[in-house]
Amino acid sequence: MSRGWAAEPIVLGVPTSQTAAAGVADDLDHLNGTTLAMEEINAAGGINGRPLKLFVTDVDKLSPESCQQAIAACIDAKVHAISNAFLFVPIPAMDVSARYKCPYLQGNTQRAATEAFKKDPAKYSHVFQTDPSEVHYGYTYPLWLKAMEKTGTWKPKNRKVHIVQEQVAYCQTISRAAQAAIKKSDFEVAKVTDIQFPVQDWGPVIQELKEVDAGAIMIDHWVAAEYAAFCKQFQADPVPDSLVYLQYGPSQPEFLTLAGEAANGFCWSTVLGVYADEKGNAFRAKYKERFPGIMGLVYTGNGYDIAYYLKAAWEATRDPSNFKAVCDWIRTNPYRGVCGYMSMNNELQESAHFPDNGFAISATELEKGMSQLYVQVQDVEHKIIYPYEIKESALKPAPWWS
Description:
globular; alpha/beta
């Protein structure tokens, strides 16, 4: 039944990759999560009596021009805020938004973008990164290796780490951070192998992995379908007893669909993901009822959390058109969502990372930051195995371990 709204809607712009080569799965997750929040908010009476309405526009995340056009389309639609999953080239989009200055909340996971805010806080005061930056993937990786070793389930055959890195800036930043952190640990970087999207055949890479024979392998890539192909080829000709970590991409729903049983045993992580606590599990149940099938664990929750964070800000300030007041409220009022705790009141205007890895910006307590989720595929399901404060399962031996 439709509600007869007397008041003008509050409009939330949601740039969404619908036709491009990259990011369609993540962006559909983000849009679905945002849609679920909008439906709940409107069913409960809206925001100060006004309905929430979404303005959706297509974007190619890899094209600076398309990113700029998507933000410009939101401005033309007179949106009251922008909710975006991520852009591979975020700064041109931020630049277009800088004169309009509506609240711009996103899960970009890119330190280059938050450093831009730090250098020019007046220009980018309205841009909030609702998750920790990608550097934490690299910084935390050796901490996770040590934790997995301490479980006794993984017994490293050597202290070598082999990194396979893709060429986009996001992957390169993660690789550099990982190499720096590994040098300070009791592991060592044995080799760094370059790959280029699209990867047509993983055979040569797997051959190199076998020659190096590292105890720990990091595949620093981002495309779920290509990860699925890697898993199938690796399972057919594995590196015995190696702990294999796949950077982020398995979070996307099509990974399990495409990889199936071949995904079992592989680990991956995200600095932004739906917890498996009471709040997170309630969201998962609602989401799966509304959008049946394999659920993405990342931007589903982020889209949902951003909409509710904005709702809190709009209700507190009572004027969605007063962009500065809304941004000031967000900056000074943290929000605990299904993906953890977001506090924007720091020099980078990004969420603090948990666990504390000794690098900025980290949190020493779970409820003071957003937890990175380390996940292992077990029986074709994603199970959080670390940090222990929110784990669902323990590390299990991979099929290629003796």
